[in-house]
Amino acid sequence: SSTFTSDQTACKLLNSSDADMVRNSSKEYTFSHTNKASAGVTFLSFFPTVAVILNVEADHLDYFADLCAVERSFRSFAQLVPENGCVVANAEDPNTMTSLSGLDRPLLTFGVEQGDVCARNLQWHNGLAAFDIMVKNEFFTHVDLQVPGLHNVKNALAAAAAAHVLGVPAAAVAQGLGSFTHCRTHATIVA
Predict the structure, then answer these.
(1) Radius of gyration over alpha carbons of the chain, in Å?
(2) Strand ranges (DSSP E) for 32-190?
(3) pTM for the whole thing?
(4) Half-sphere exposure (CA, 13 Å, Cβ side) for 181?
(5) CA torsion sign, 158 to 4 to 21 to 17?
(6) What pLDDT, in 10s, does the model give residues 129-188?
(7) Nearest residue to 134 via CA among 109, 166, 152, 151
(8) Cα separations (Å) of 152 from 45, 82, 124?
(9) Which of 31, 39, 30, 33 is nearest to 17 (CA)?
């Protein structure tokens, strides 16, 4: 488990497949990255206060019958969020938005170009993105990512949205996202 002061970040992306414990002021958070059917245990076993949905696609069809079953499962997951929680969802993924249509939980959307949390002034330097994060059309913070690819811009926006919901200071979000380099399970070079 890792302990962070309020001027550090609760927006740390996982460096393992296990949950990390993060402290911010007097609050304690568990961050967990899971796929829909990991080790035979579904993500419906979690009861998140803030749930982040990056995308909904016809994936793990060995576990789900079809895309409609995946969408229903994500809808069920979102409904596990308490009324005082929040679902953070990708506004630019049609399947995600279909899954969450009419959801009776607070919803904060993100996306590169559209969403409550989005990127502005996106620039690329040697394959790495630098951009402003806007929350409901107001400047939140500027980020210089250390990981390449548009998918990591989306991941950063999702993390920033969740951090914003949790009251993490903008400077901590910028520091956390700007210092993140990769997950051990992703983008690892094996010789």
Answers:
(1) 16
(2) 37-38, 41-42, 50-53, 86-90, 107-111, 117-125, 128-135, 138-148
(3) 0.79
(4) 2
(5) positive
(6) 999 999 999 999 999 999 999 999 999 999 999 999 999 999 999 999 999 987 655 555
(7) 109
(8) 27, 28, 12
(9) 33
